[in-house]
Amino acid sequence: MKSLLPIALTLLLSPITSYAAVHFNNNTCNKLFKDEGNKVCKEAVKGDAKARYAMARLFGDPQSGPLVNLDYAFYWHLKLARQIVKEKLKEPAYVSTLYNTGVLYTDGLGTKKDSGKGFYWFQQSAKRGDALAMVRLAIAYENGAGTQKNDTESVKWLTKAVELDDPQAKVAMAKRLIEAKGVKKDTSKAIQFLKDAAAQNLPQASFILGNAYLTGAVVDKDFAQAKKWYAKSCQLNMLIACKRYFDLDTNTQGLEPFLNTNPLK
Questions:
Q1: 81 lies in some domain
Q2: For 87-111, how does the pLDDT look when each residue is reduced to its tens digit (9 = 90+)?
Q3: Spatial CA neighbour of 171 closest among 122, 138, 143
Q4: What span, in angstroms and rounded, lies between the C-alpha atoms of 77 and 49?
Q5: Domain total for the chain?
Q6: How many C-beta neighbours within 10 Å does residue 58 have?
Q7: What is the pTM for the complete model shown?
């Protein structure tokens, strides 16, 4: 990623319009940028992949603050994504562009929502080794979003993502192992996956572990362990975990409604 062109954010001249309906051209670049930013923009218009990556990153990265514009971000992501596939570009950072294009389509960000096109770009990213794209493929196959339901394919891609040590994949696989959904039930392995994901600071994993120890549905009931995992999840800014920790710390009777609920929720 370090080899890709950056854009100095201070080079923006005029406010960005709210909708990227017009095709980006040199005039657009002249309206938005000066100096180095203008040069990079025009290189992107001409088809330079690194410049297109820089443009996609500039308009799509939350750290860009007021420069974020999802319409422009989608425009450059799609331009670059098509180029990556057509020219078989190998730069590892481009894999995230394919994944992000899938997210933009699936969630309807900067473009009309289209789960089928989202699924296609998740496929392109996943076959190049992106674990997050594999998880999204697994979810798509499980729910029939943008493709036909196929539990075998769902488990296959989830397994690949787990093998790449992705924490979200571990949580998703843990749920399947607990519910015996497409895999053989194995609660011990599920708990280990959850603990591994929690060690990778995924708050959802710690929260589910808190639920598991609170309800006793998957492991033996242990309020001390429940508090421990809720505390970790709370520290990672999961507010519902903070509330569960507080309730458990002050009045266990306040948790009665949760004792018979699904710990995976």
A1: yes
A2: 999 999 999 999 999 999 999 999 9
A3: 138
A4: 11
A5: 1
A6: 26
A7: 0.84
